[in-house]
UniProtKB/TrEMBL annotation:
Function according to Swiss-Prot or TrEMBL: Formation of pseudouridine at positions 38, 39 and 40 in the anticodon stem and loop of transfer RNAs.
UniProt name for this protein: tRNA pseudouridine synthase A
Gene that encodes the chain: truA
Residues annotated as binding substrate: 147
Organism annotation: Rhodopirellula maiorica SM1
One Pfam family here: PseudoU_synth_1
InterPro entries: PsdUridine_synth_cat_dom_sf (IPR020103), PsdUridine_synth_TruA (IPR001406), PsdUridine_synth_TruA_a/b_dom (IPR020097), PsdUridine_synth_TruA_C (IPR020095), TruA/RsuA/RluB/E/F_N (IPR020094)
Keywords annotated in UniProt: Isomerase, tRNA processing
Ranges where the Pseudouridine synthase I TruA alpha/beta domain occurs: 44-138, 180-287
GO MF terms held by the record: RNA binding; tRNA pseudouridine(38-40) synthase activity
GO annotation (BP), single: tRNA pseudouridine synthesis
Length: 291
């Protein structure tokens, strides 16, 4: 009679962090695989209109809460999802990045993406999922971000776009706004643009790009433009406070050179109002390639 020899089960579809525990190999009829934690990097798009921001809050719908709820269904355990940043209520994301660790997912990262999307509302979509190094952390490893803030000047309000733009009903000098925006570029102390009550160890940030992007006008009139800001990091409400200050320049309340004075003041009272949240999108989060 031919006798089967004990063999070690391969781990070829379980990602780079999966391994077999030799002590778990039993008799010739049984092989038990012991899995270690796997780390995943997720890219997520969401419409933040109906959510109280990214971070979990009691009795309120949040992006993080919805993601973790979906993962409980899939892994039968609580899995903490760490986002690259905590977007506020009403703020959207085209490509938020999150990290998570779990020992209870044996299929591919693509299967995880598909399974999560089945269990998420239509306003949240995981657009990419990859296995990541064990020490990958969405906040700590981020080296830069880019935000987009959308504005409409004049024209008729669009029932489809109003949730995603700041609609202004007064004239705006876009040339002045563009000149003012360029003055934010470079390494500066952005204390004037940090929300009160949210101190950081340092308020110095390096803004690589701050530009005005003009868009085609809509059929029912109005001027469309976006403010795009890319930096190595952002303070709380920094983008919305910058946009609010730029609009003050666009109204003619201050000249573009006023931005230099606001930066130098390092005082929130020196800057303009905070722009509303619904027009803000987290466009991109940058990381070094995995080794």
């Amino acid at each position: 009679m031919c006798q089967r020899q004990p063999s070690q089960r391969r781990c070829d579809q379980r990602g780079p962090n999966c391994r077999i525990n030799d002590q778990a190999i039993g008799n010739e009829n049984s092989v038990v695989a012991a899995l270690v934690d796997r780390t995943f990097k997720l890219t997520i798009a969401y419409d933040g209109t109906d959510y109280s921001g990214w971070q979990i809050q009691p009795q309120k719908p949040t992006i993080q809460g919805m993601l973790e709820r979906a993962l409980v269904k899939l892994t039968r355990q609580r899995v903490h999802v760490t986002g690259s940043g905590r977007t506020d209520a009403g703020v959207h994301a085209l490509a938020q990045v999150a990290s998570l660790r779990t020992p209870n997912w044996r299929a591919s990262a693509t299967d995880l993406l598909n399974a999560m999307n089945v269990n998420l509302p239509p306003t949240i979509v995981v657009t990419d999922a990859v296995d990541a190094p064990d020490d990958f952390h969405a906040i700590r490893d981020a080296i830069g971000k880019r935000y987009r803030y959308q504005v409409q000047v004049g024209g008729q309000r669009s029932v489809f776009d109003y949730r995603y733009r700041w609609h202004l009903y007064h004239d705006i000098d876009l040339d002045a706004v563009s000149e003012a925006a360029a003055r934010f570029e470079g390494k500066h102390d952005f204390a004037s643009f940090q929300a009160v009550g949210s101190p950081r160890k340092t308020t110095t940030r390096n803004v690589k790009v701050c530009e005005i992007i003009r868009e085609p006008s809509m059929s029912h009139g109005g001027i469309l433009f976006s403010v795009e800001i890319e930096a190595d990091g952002f303070l709380y409400n920094m983008v919305r406070n910058i946009v609010g200050t730029l609009i003050e320049v666009g109204k003619g309340k201050y000249p573009p050179q006023h931005i230099d004075n606001v930066i130098e003041a390092a005082n929130r009272d020196a800057a303009g109002p905070t722009a509303p949240p619904q027009a803000l999108f987290l466009k991109r989060v940058d990381y070094l390639p995995f080794a």
